[in-house]
Specification:
Recoverin, domain 1; TIM Barrel; 10 strands; alpha/beta; binds 3-methyl-2-oxobutanoic acid; 381 residues; binds zinc ion
Length: 381
């Protein structure tokens, strides 16, 4: 099995389904260009039959973005598939992403189909899509809650019908890493023609396990990850692109896999998506949050100033951040204060420094953070 993990970005489709988010075509194009630059393999550009605006966005991104696969979502219906193919007409590499639910819950309550009817409809959809494009991905919605043997049968049948990629979505974010990893491994090991397709992780974050589940899927044999920038998406969101990419990089000893993402563009990309979607990134967000490389307690500052790796497993430069930050608060120690004063050009003898440190603590108890202006006031007063 190859060790290359393909990155399928769905910021512009599943990400745009975040409540309150609406991206104009121009904004989608700007994000799309940034996604190409950062090196994603597939951009899911939209769901063309859903609205004329979405059709237009997929068509424009297909025409403008090169060196990447452009993917369009469709239900397992001929008309959806035709419209998706039409929107993808000018793509250098086009993929149709079609599928149906596989859990009994979805079959009974949403699709109102038997397992056999849904299987037949899925196979027919893949066959039809393959008449229009060479690359067809099949999604098995709500795989996380589905019966394993039925999932295996669906996978075997849609691969036989021509699906090139099989998406195994944990649509409701229900599984834990052990279960999701075993689901992927079970498919790879039990489906007779599994060597003819790539398996894809698509996880939602309802229980806060989307990234862990996706990584477990990679360990189980998946070689595509479906992600969004900043983890935006329906409800609690999708797996965050930056988290998976950096986890695969930092823990390559564990995963033994690589992507082709240019990691030092992650932070600018995160900011671009936050700006266009209006979805602010929480300060403590892994990899791209404002606090991700900031150290505020004295114990940590002391360690980081002696040797960065004591408290940092990610080099800020790796993700495009300037450097680690020493934040001065009431929890900071002498080492942190001395370091910052020296950076500002102030060096004091022991006695004067101790007197400054006492006044610094008094000030810090009243303010959340002490900035450079506060320090200058301290020094001159
Ligand atoms: O979460 C999901 O199941 C999806 C599919 C439409 C791929 O987004
Ligand atoms: Zn989804």
């Amino acid at each position: 099995m190859t060790n290359r993990v393909h990155v399928f970005d769905t910021t512009l489709r599943d990400g745009e389904q975040s409540p309150g988010v609406r991206l104009a075509t121009e904004q989608k194009l700007e994000i799309g260009r940034a996604l190409v630059e950062i090196g994603v393999d597939v951009i899911e550009a939209g769901f063309p039959i859903s609205s004329p605006g979405d059709f237009e966005s997929v068509a424009i991104l297909s025409r403008e973005l090169k060196g990447v696969t452009i993917c369009a979502l469709s239900r397992a219906r001929e008309r959806d598939i035709e419209v998706a193919a039409d929107a993808l007409k000018f793509a250098e590499r086009a993929r149709i992403h079609t599928g149906l639910g596989v859990s009994d819950n979805h079959l009974r309550h949403k699709l109102r189909m038997t397992r056999e009817e849904a299987l037949a409809a899925g196979v027919a959809a893949v066959r039809y899509a393959r008449r229009l494009v060479d690359d067809v991905e099949y999604f098995m919605e709500d795989s996380g809650r589905a019966d394993r043997d039925y999932v295996y049968r669906v996978v075997e049948s849609v691969i036989e019908a021509g699906a090139t990629v099989i998406n195994v979505p944990d649509t409701t974010g229900y599984t834990d890493p052990g279960e999701y990893g075993a689901l992927i491994r079970g498919i790879v090991e039990n489906v007779p023609n599994s060597d003819r397709a790539v398996f894809s992780c698509h996880c939602h974050n309802d229980l806060g396990m989307a990234t862990a589940n996706t990584l477990a899927g990679v360990l189980g044999g998946a070689r595509q990850v479906e992600v969004t920038v900043n983890g935006i998406g329906e409800r609690a969101g999708n797996t965050a692109l930056e988290e998976v990419v950096i986890a695969l990089h930092v823990r390559r000893d564990l995963f033994g896999c690589e992507t082709r993402i240019v990691t030092n563009r992650l932070l600018p990309l995160s900011r671009l998506v936050a700006q266009h979607t209006g979805m602010v990134v929480q300060r403590n967000k892994a990899v791209v949050g404002a606090n991700a490389y900031a150290h505020s307690s004295g114990i940590h500052q002391d360690g980081v100033l002696k040797e960065r790796s004591t408290y940092e497993i990610i080099d800020p430069l790796l993700v495009g951040a300037e450097r680690s930050e020493i934040v001065l608060t009431a929890r900071s120690g002498r080492h942190g204060l001395k370091h910052r004063l020296a950076e500002m050009g102030f060096n004091f003898g022991e006695e004067r420094f101790e007197e400054l440190y006492d006044r610094f603590l008094t000030m810090a108890d009243m303010k959340t953070e002490i900035d450079d202006d506060d320090l200058r006031d301290l020094v001159i007063s």
